Each structure stands twice: as C-alpha cells, then as structure tokens.
C-alpha cells in the first residue's frame, strides 16, 4: 500500500477495529457523519486537522499518531 492517504485511512480503520468499534460507533463518538467517516477510511476524503482531533478523542490517538496521519494525507494532496 504505497499511497499515503490509503495507508493513513487504513490505519484509522485498523485502530477502530482493534478497539472493537463499529464505524457507526466511532462516527458517533467523534461527532462525524458515518458516511464521511467511511469516505475517510476508504481514502476518498482527506483527513482534516479538525476531524483528526475529533478522532483523536474518540479512539485515543496520541499526538504523534495524529501528526503522522495528517502528514501522510498532506503528502499526497500537495
């Protein structure tokens, strides 16, 4: 998986699954529309800093993990 957006999207999905959450549950916890979260996880929508912070609280991501996810998305978008 060489596409950084796909890799970071996969990371979000993997973290969610490891913590035993459904997509709907994570979306509710983070205050993100479930369809939008689905698009983020598929790499179809970028992960914005605002939504990254929402996800941080919902799946207990470290500051480092958030920065890594955002950096991966930014590399592919620029």
UniProtKB/TrEMBL annotation:
A UniProt-annotated Pfam family: HTH_3
Annotated ranges, domain HTH cro/C1-type: 12-66
Database matches in SUPFAM superfamilies: lambda repressor-like DNA-binding domains
Origin: domain of life: Bacteria
GO molecular function: DNA binding
Coiled coil: none
InterPro entries associated with the record: Cro/C1-type_HTH, Lambda_DNA-bd_dom_sf
Name listed for the protein in its UniProt record: Helix-turn-helix domain-containing protein
Organism: Fictibacillus marinisediminis
């Amino acid at each position: 998986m060489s596409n950084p957006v796909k890799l970071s999207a996969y990371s979000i999905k993997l973290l969610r699954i490891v913590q035993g959450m459904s997509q709907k549950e994570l979306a509710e916890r983070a205050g993100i529309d479930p369809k939008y979260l689905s698009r983020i996880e598929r790499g179809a929508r970028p992960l914005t800093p605002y939504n990254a912070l929402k996800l941080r609280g919902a799946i207990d991501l470290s500051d480092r993990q958030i920065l890594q996810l955002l950096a991966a998305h930014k590399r592919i978008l620029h």
